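This entry is listed below:
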Amino acid sequence: MPVVTTPATLRPSAGPIDNAEVLRIRNDFPILDQHVNGRPLVYLDSGATSQNPLSVIEAEQEFYEQRNSAVHRGAHTLAVAATDVFEDARTAIAGFVNAAPDEIVWTSNATEALNLLTYSFSNASADRGGAAARRFALGEGDEIVVTEMEHHANLIPWQELAARTGATLRWIPVDDAGALRLDEAEQIIGPRTKVLSFTHASNVLGTINPVSELVTMARLHGALVVLDACQSVPHLPVDVKALDVDFAAFSGHKMLGPTGIGVLYGKAALLNALPPFLTGGSMITTVTMDKAEYLPAPQRFEAGTQRISQAMALGTAANYLQETGMDRIHAWEMELGQRLVSGLEAIEGIRVVGPPSGVERIGLAAFDVAGVHSHDVGQFLDDKGIAVRVGHHCAQPLHRRLGLVSTTRASTYLYNTTDDVDAFLDAVAGVRPFFGVK
């Protein structure tokens, strides 16, 4: 049996997604067919975790019912079957982002992927990996550049790498509207820059950053480029070869897959030159009592028992998204995102962060309600069956730059209708009156 399966109820049309198709799509997502606090669930928190179609749920169950065994270790039938579906899933994810299978490393999530990368850089800095690894080594005088809009997962690992190696961490600031100061980026990215790491799409602002411009700046100085693709890979077509990034990280649970599975993409030559971080079984060729030799990528970064059922389910999720059409999903979410922003802008006392209506963004909007804490906003919406995210969204520096402590965030996906957005907007309009704020 193949790793990935076609959705049972989804039959995409050639035209754009509309509400009628979304209602068919929703039939594949059992969790959405429920009531919360006596009201139909309106799920607008996919930026944190997306929901799973039946085909993904069934794929993971099928693995445990039919194929449960360790991969790359046994010669018996079950072990071979498990290895086949595990590697088929890798091929599916590689195809999803236009990479080669040996450029896809399984991790637990994107956070682990970025930590794997930074700790592997540390090993290169500690003179592990030989001559091929020297381009990853950092020390005093070297610089790592990030942006002021980064999720903590793409900030703290670089902070720690700088602390371990003596390198300097610098960042590209954002303006008052939250847009990257590209004029300053040209001054910050320079001869000392060894790594540029930035988010493709902001989980707070909804901004889609100009990857090509930033990559061009980095290439002028020979810097490596790392892309946090957590909010882009699930929502718009991503071609890592066309983007020409050296590494990219994304999570399964944000793209209809299960929790516990993430991906580190890396150009094959770079992965094979990078020293491993986690070591142990299944990532070696030869071991003696005083040294070990390692397999080529991706196995050299996959020590120990792997996330087999999760990988299989993620391959199924990628197939589901491709069956729908990533360009169609992106267009639908852009429509929902614009509906969110324009609707929020029309409500008195609401400050939307990120691009204003009419400017391209992914299908999310974070906002502040004057006089009402985001946690109270979230509770008010939850009472009406509307699930949103509240807090700093793991982006404290960005909130601080915008003069905020926290925001409320609504984020859409392919299973949301315009009615979902309208129900949310109607509820938000009632927040300030409910709390007696004038």
Remarks:
- The first strand starts at residue 35 and ends at 36.
- Residues 67 and 82 are 5 Å apart (CA to CA).
- The chain has a mean pLDDT of 95.
